Amino acid sequence: MLPKRTCAALAVLAVTAGTLAGAGAANAGQPHGGDRGPKPVAFERTATYPVFQNRPAGEDAAAQTVAEISATSEDGRTLVYTDAAARRIGFLDISDAGRPQGLGTLSLAELGDAEDEPTSVSVVGRYVLVVVNTSASHSRPSGRLDVISLRTRERVASHDLGGQPDSVAISKDQRYAAVAIENERDEEATPAGGEEGDLPQAPAGFVQIVDLEEASPARWTTRAVPLTREDGSALPALVAAGITEPTDPEPEYVSVNSRGQLAVTLQENNGVVMIDLASGRLTKAFTAGTASVEGIDTVEDGVIDQTGSLSDVPREPDALGWIDDRYLATANEGDWKGGTRGWTVFDSRTGKVAWDAGNTFEHTAARHGLLNDDRSENKGTEPEGLAVATYDGVRYAFVGSERSNFVAVYDVSKPTRPVFEQVLPATNGPEGLLPIPSRGLLAVSSEEDDAEAGVRASVSLFRLGKGAPAHPSLVSGADSAGAPIGWGALGALSAVPGRADELYTVTDAAYSTTRILTVDAAREPAVIRRELTVRDAAGEPVGYDAEGIHARPQGGFWLAVEGGTGPGNQLVRLDRHGVTQQVVPVPSDVAAGLGPQGFEGVTATTDRRGREIVWATLQRRAAADPAGVVRLGRYDVRAGTWSWYGYRLGTTATAGDWIGLSEITVVGDRLAVIERDKLNGPAARVKRIYTVDLPKGASPGGALTVLPKTLAHDVLPELRATKGWTQEKLEGLTVAGNGHVYAVTDNDGLDDSTGETVLLDLGTARKVLGRD
């Protein structure tokens, strides 16, 4: 069973933008409740549904299918999502939040053309409103609003929108729908006097209001709200507001408050406009402004270095939502010129910033092992989705990170003082954030689908309830400069000698500099307290592909280093300061038979006479070895000699899959290993701990002696119990000084992975492995 985890506090580390007003970002990093006292409630994941399972009969399971924007029926039991990749909308039964069921799809090819693309969806009473992009080109934008019966899934009406639509929102009284007609720019076109992808590019976008008062959808009418003059010149209100290119507004996202005021982001133009829905009159326009953000990673160099900064960057907001009838929140994703890696609260009366997240959104990602270094130079965490809703009398804002695969939850009961509550893990590219307060649920739909990597687009459900959530199971504390310790790609574990509740783990080749991290496992969630940079013999930081770690009772460490080729596989001995003291290469005859999968785990024993024996495992079979047998290496440190035993792997019938070993640790008179497949998500099958008797001495040589194995523990149920995407790389295993068995998954630094790290306390060694 997974241990209960408490909501984790984000250290207050913000160096905020110079334009901040009010309380600023200081409260963004407080523990849940802040100075309002703790609240015994949190959102807990109940299910993750891969939408490829909802595909039409006969369709290839590997065909791309996504879930971008979602809506629900009025009873909150049927969820509808857009699938732009497959040109359709999908339906899910979420009556049981723990077991969503596919209800099939509706292809837009049946309603129009095979290239028609759904961009957003909403529900009004018995009808699903789908906005559809039918554009032949950027210069000839077009679109329509299809009205679908929720019961029969037949189209009952269709309305021309006059341009390429993006998002749709419904007024609280359900009298109006508002559609952002973006008429987006061609990123490869060059306007006169500009550069490739620049604005302006005609035709200009606008807002379409749909009057829904008539009972029959066929009688609904549309009213266009232009955002330029009739001759294409700029509206004075947009010019006065400082909109970047007011002749090409490109409206992106729409949201309506309870007073019928529509707010619209002009993302590429770094602005917001407000429209009165009843009259269709533009009432206000203001710039989203710029921000300077310090204490963030801005260089894609394989190092999480949070000392970079951005100066006077346009926010360029994407999604927005009304916190109340006065305050607006925006997710500042950025587009072609900006993106401030956070979110902002604006006072709609003045257009001024009331609060800004500064660097705290990025720090949230770093603290939870979700900072994607590959995006450091390009918008970072990229906050894109945003939604606001009230649950049990508390107003929450949800902000989704497109590139770090999480949703941050904030209490916005005081709009100018948001309080960070928790992080919700998502599959890749969380796009749609859908609060369902009537059922205490939040649905998160993701737009990234990678069948080759086995990480598929999904709809995740979370329920607000009492008790601490299972995620996160591991977070980091602050480094010496006060920023959260950035981490990820944890592929190994070791007990800390003499410390009952501490663990060591180590980063692998996902990062260019190797670090050893000390984990306090007595806390829930466990906390990374310290980091130690690994150095070469000359004392310079070094990047090893460290796949195994063993802390030596006599001081220092052994690392198992995997090579890109066979000769690159090494055992590396470090002193207590992390400086390399000895490098032991794999013997040349073994190296010759290895491919890219080599050393994967290391452990050691030291007897009373000080004789140290190091054990290391290869991940897969060496070329000349018997089929299905992988090597366990025994290295006698004093003698400087290797000998080898064999371990027989299980088999798999799944095409493209393989089974290998990913960890080894000594447990009394046995060796415990992790044996796993290459599969993840619902396809995952083999995530197991086996034991073999610890050989008394060196192998006799000749043919490999295969050690009989015993299944000790199947970890797959614990991984599936997270209700998330079952992680592929169960890679770390150790028995701590407190007698508990710990295991951890490797998130690969978010490369071909959801990024979620699962640290498991599996229970006592007696219970898990049958030994004290």
Automatic annotation (TrEMBL):
Residues 339-420 form the Choice-of-anchor I domain. Pfam families: choice_anch_I, Phytase-like. SUPFAM superfamilies: YVTN repeat-like/Quinoprotein amine dehydrogenase. Residues 1-28 form the signal peptide. Residues 486-748 form the Phytase-like domain. InterPro entries: Choice_anch_I, Mesenchyme-surface_protein, Phytase-like_dom, Quino_amine_DH_bsu, WD40/YVTN_repeat-like_dom_sf. Keywords: Signal. This is Esterase-like activity of phytase family protein.
